[in-house]
Design a protein that fits this description.
Layout (H helix, E strand, L loop, with lengths): L1 H7 L5 E3 L15 E3 L10 H11 L4 E7 L5 E8 L10 H6 L4 H4 L7 E6 L6 H16 L9 H8 L3 E5 L4 H6 L13 H8 L1 E2 L21 E3 L22 H13 L3 E7 L9 E2 L9 H17 L8 H4 L12 H9 L2 E7 L6 E2 L5 E2 L3 H22 L2 H4 L3
Parallel strand pairs: 5-6, 5-9, 9-11
Antiparallel strand pairs: 1-2, 3-4, 4-6, 7-8, 10-11, 12-13
The protein binds zinc ion.
GO molecular function: metallocarboxypeptidase activity; zinc ion binding
Protein name: Peptidase M14 domain-containing protein
Pfam families: Peptidase_M14
Length: 394
């Protein structure tokens, strides 16, 4: 059998894994985990559910909804939520020129939401949320490393809600815990993230967005972008026939009315292969706040050695215009006024290049550090600058 022969070639050291019976044509040479998986790399749905059950004592675990495939979406909440209701809708409050009419009597509270795994094949953000929960529970990530500044920043926020995996269907579909590292070759990440057509050709980005819903029968493997209904949750039919995952997020936003949301993805720019925050298609009045947030987070990443240089003047310079897409973050902003931003991580599975064209791999440790530094600086920003009611009250 050709597949068996290919598998026998030790191109990349890995540990074979069983496939997914729903997608029997996944090539054997792709069905392998990284040879050594750090204990902190908790990325699989069952392992996360066990982690939440056993380790969450200070927070409260809640099911915020079910996926198209009927799977529970779990969140963990810390602190006291906003109490009392506003007198109008978010849109009404904007029309009334006072967002506090929507936020209600305790509009001054500060509420943060973190999302992992809106795309099921993007493991870095999932591992990041799990380790963030560990820090909130114990002061330490799953390596045992203390994060006193993150703990202190979190203590200044009234309410934190974390969803380790939004697209549970997409994550469950991928039978790997950690992809092998393949140098500058993104074969594992591309296959499992954006999928492959029946004829073996990668679907790839951005073609994966040309077909929503994606018909799985046309694919050898549909990747981790879509839920079980074939829908990429970043580009749902937000104001029409929404997916249950989107509805669960909208309902969560209605209850929590967050100020700031980090939507953690994997997809750093290949020519500057470091964590980057993207400008959302949000209300124009939040633009200056976004730019200050961007400066804060990229400064923290640079000083932590997690950007191309350690110079904030380079790494945290004013973000470019023109890449703001109407997507989930725009929908969440329109729904409740949250400043919702995508943050793209490099992948553990392949290396990109820095601005000088040199190949820059990222260790699993660096990837986790970047996740936690982003949360630390984001929470610090929210604590220092106040939330929605302060940013653009009138
Ligand atoms: Zn993504």
């Amino acid at each position: 059998m050709l597949a068996g022969f290919v598998f026998a070639l030790p191109i990349f050291a890995g540990k074979p894994v069983p496939g997914n019976p729903d997608f029997p044509d996944i090539p054997n040479d792709l069905l392998q985990n990284a040879d050594e998986i750090p204990a902190f790399w908790v990325s699989e749905v069952d392992a996360i559910a066990s982690f939440l059950k056993e380790k969450v004592k200070r927070g409260r675990v809640m099911e915020i909804g079910r996926t198209a495939g009927g799977r529970p979406i779990l969140a963990v909440a810390y602190g006291e939520p906003r109490k009392g209701r506003g007198t109008t809708t978010f849109s009404g409050a904007i029309g009334f020129f006072d967002v506090r009419a929507y936020l209600g009597p305790d509009h001054a509270k500060k509420v943060f939401v973190g999302l992992g795994g809106v795309h099921g094949g993007e493991f870095e953000g999932i591992v990041g949320v799990v380790n963030f929960i560990s820090v909130l529970e114990t002061g330490r990530d799953l390596r045992g490393r203390e994060w006193p500044e993150l703990t202190a920043a979190a203590a200044r926020i009234d309410r934190i809600v974390l969803v380790p995996v939004v697209n549970i269907d997409g994550r469950v579909r991928i039978p790997l815990r950690m992809e092998p590292f393949a140098g500058t070759d993104n074969r594992y990440h591309q296959y499992f993230n954006t999928g492959t057509w029946k004829n073996g050709r990668p679907i790839g980005w951005p073609t994966i967005k040309e077909f929503i819903p994606l018909e799985f029968s046309r694919t050898q493997f549909p990747g981790g972008y879509p839920n079980d209904a074939g829908v990429n949750l970043m580009h749902d039919d937000f104001l029409g026939a929404r997916q249950p995952e989107t509805q669960a997020l909208l309902d969560l936003m209605s209850r929590e009315k967050p100020d700031l949301l980090f939507n953690m993805h994997t997809g750093a720019p290949p020519e500057n292969y470091y964590m980057r925050m993207h400008r959302p298609a949000a209300e124009l009045r939040l633009d200056a706040v976004y730019e200050e947030l961007y400066r804060t987070v990229h400064t923290a990443l640079a000083l932590a050695g997690l950007q191309g240089t350690k110079d904030p003047a380079i790494e945290a310079a004013k973000p470019k215009r023109g890449n703001a897409l109407v997507n989930l973050d725009a929908a969440l902003n329109m729904h409740c006024g949250v400043l919702s931003v995508v943050i793209e991580s490099p992948s553990h599975s392949f290396a990109g290049r820095n601005r000088q064209g040199e190949v820059v791999p990222h260790s699993a440790d660096m990837l986790l550090d970047a996740q936690l530094v982003a949360y630390q600086s984001g929470l610090g920003f929210l604590a220092d600058n106040g939330g929605r009611a302060k940013w653009a009250p009138k």
